[in-house]
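In response to the reviewer comment on reproducibility (Comment 2.3), we provide here a single inverse folding case reported in full, input and output, so that an independent group could reproduce the run without further information from us. The structure tokens appear first.
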């Protein structure tokens, strides 16, 4: 069945078809645009790269530090302060 004339349903279909065609044309023009990453996105990318560059854990140094702590050669209040200060300077 073909609807002809000025019936309200016919006009509604025509308007919807025209809007659909406009959306299709708008989508094709969007393909040429560029995308910019937000500051947070750039920061996350840099953070990920920095994380990937962290050196492996040196288990020999960890073992030595554990032995020094157990013997009392490491772990004084002064050692703790020096470690905290060193970490704060890295940040």
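Designed residues, in position order:
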């Amino acid at each position: 069945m073909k609807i002809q004339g000025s019936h309200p349903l016919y006009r509604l279909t025509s308007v919807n078809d025209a809007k659909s065609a406009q959306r299709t044309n708008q989508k094709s023009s969007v393909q040429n645009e560029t995308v910019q990453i937000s500051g947070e996105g750039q920061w996350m990318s840099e953070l990920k790269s920095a994380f990937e560059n962290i050196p492996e854990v040196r288990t020999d140094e960890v073992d030595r530090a554990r032995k020094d702590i157990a013997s009392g050669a490491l772990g004084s209040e002064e050692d703790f302060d020096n470690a905290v200060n060193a970490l704060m300077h890295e940040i």
